[in-house]
């Protein structure tokens, strides 16, 4: 795991640039979520899923508007309407919020995504698409963390800080899904320009034997 304090500061700096240069409401929203750091989008995901009372994964405009306000997104009414219409491609008056969440999440190129998926598969011994925090602790090399090497953190502290990245609004269920794992590293990826450095970071954390 990289130094999250440094990475989050880099993400916030990049978000400020994106926000200034944003050409449409979607880019404004992406910048606002990016400014929250590597784990910021998970609270947003949880909030929208809670709003899906009937489990149909759809939101009308009123629900959508309420949801983005509750998670702290700042848009005027015209921007909200434009953003909603972007996702309501069939004009039925509802949007698929899973598609919305996937779109606002930072994207990784294929090589980086394959590295992240390989790290997850390495832990997912049952192949059911989930791993426990214990699985992660057994696989993650805390001694590669810069704050462990500097003596600032113990290996236990590194592990505790890593687990916090999978919390959303204070909720911890002890399970990490592939989507959560990808979401975490997608945000980190935004602050790393070099594919080579991203590759090195992943292998230092999860082992040199990652297959891509």
What does this structure look like?
- With 212 residues, this protein is mainly alpha-helical.
- It folds into two domains: 1-104, Recoverin, domain 1 (Orthogonal Bundle), CATH 1.10.238.10; 110-206, Recoverin, domain 1, CATH 1.10.238.
- The protein has helices at 4-21, 25-34, 40-51, 61-70, 77-87, 97-104, 110-123, 133-139, 146-149, 155-164, 178-190, 195-206; strands at residues 58-60, 94-96, 130-132, 175-177.
- The strands form two sheets. It has a two-stranded antiparallel ribbon.
Q: Return the CATH architecture of the largest domain.
A: Orthogonal Bundle
* Global geometry: globular
Helices and strands, in order, run as: HHHEHHEHHEHHHEHH
- Compute the number of structural domains: 2
Count of distinct strands: 4
Q: At the fourth CATH level, what is the homologous superfamily of the largest domain? A: EF-hand
Q: Report mean pLDDT, rounded to a whole number.
A: 80
Instruction: Outline the biggest β-sheet.
Output: 2 strands, antiparallel
The helix fraction, in percent, is 55-70%
Instruction: Give the low-pLDDT segments.
Output: none
Structural class: mainly alpha
First-residue to last-residue Cα separation: 19 Å
Cross-sheet strand order for the largest sheet = 1-2
GO molecular function, one term: calcium ion binding
Organism: Arion vulgaris
InterPro entries: Ca-bind (IPR051581), EF-hand-dom_pair (IPR011992), EF_Hand_1_Ca_BS (IPR018247), EF_hand_dom (IPR002048)
Domain EF-hand: 39-74, 75-110, 111-146
